[in-house]
Amino acid sequence: MLAMQAVRTGGPEVLEAVDLPLPAPGPGQILVRHHAVGLNYIDTYHRSGLYPMKMPAVLGLEAAGVVEALGEGVTRFVAGDRVAYNGSLGAYAEAAVVPADRAVKVPDSVSLEVAAAVLLKGMTAEFLVRRCFHVKPADVVLVHAAAGGVGSILVQWCKSLGATVIATVGSEAKAAIARDLGADHVILYDHEDVAARVAEITGGKGVAVVYDGVGKDTFEASLKSLARRGVLATFGNASGPVPPFSPLELSSRSLFVTRPRLFDYIVSTEELDESAQALFAVLASGAVRIDIGQTFPLSEARAAHEALEGRRTTGATLLLP
């Protein structure tokens, strides 16, 4: 089978096509023949070495497809089931073996392309708005990179909960996308003072929560944008990791900062299923729609990484085997 392997840490150029034997599922595992593979920013962290891992390695944590074979003891699925998974490394391939208890069934109402595009990003949005910070109708929230994969889902989900959404984006084209998603206010962070605009929009009160997947470049503005006892959920490092800071910086308004990870919110199979069901429910209701902004052949994963890191993508990006 075709797979895309990072031969060492580095830029997109380290991704190379390789021919690997089709794996066989062991006890408790399933073999999934991929229909679509999701591209996520965490893939670039693995490739670059920001999140260290043994190299060479087949990247990718998310895909959707059809169960082709079952390992011993698997009762959760049968051959032919439509499934999606995240969290199992090796998705940049035509097929992969994954633990059965870390995959979920895809309902008929959701295409496999959408499932591959949304599962990791959508479950990230789910825990951020429902469990990391419980968004309520009266809340004002700030979402950075609102036209991106997670950001676009956050905007819609927060709006469906009745919150007022302030979105930041990097261009006029992405501002139009954020407005179409339902953002109440849009800030171009390359041209405007984000914290000053947030203060203007909120009458000086600030926001209840900031969802920040950008990292280093937005951290200071995120802190300054928070209301008293506000929460900064810094869940990504698109611009680089947040630099060290003193907890005393939080004391002026009793602020909270958390660096949450999805996989700490879907530890058990029960948590995984609950998160997926909540996600599929908002998709079925129409409250959240998924924009697959671009697709690349699996063999062109290098170009997909270049587009993602060059901020030339909108919505979700898929690799197609």
From TrEMBL:
In terms of InterPro entries, this protein maps to: ADH-like_C, ADH-like_N, ER, GroES-like_sf, NAD(P)-bd_dom_sf, QOR-like
Alphabetically sorted, this entry's keywords are: NADP, Oxidoreductase
What NCBIfam families does this protein map onto?
PRK10754.1
Q: Name one Pfam family in it.
A: ADH_N
Tell whether Transcription is among the UniProt keywords: no
Per the record, GO CC terms? Answer: cytosol
Give start and end of each Enoyl reductase (ER) domain.
10-319
Q: Does the keyword Oxidoreductase apply?
A: yes
Taxonomically, which superkingdom?
Bacteria
Spell out the molecular function terms from Gene Ontology. mRNA 3'-UTR AU-rich region binding; NADPH binding; quinone reductase (NADPH) activity
- What is this protein called in UniProt? Quinone oxidoreductase
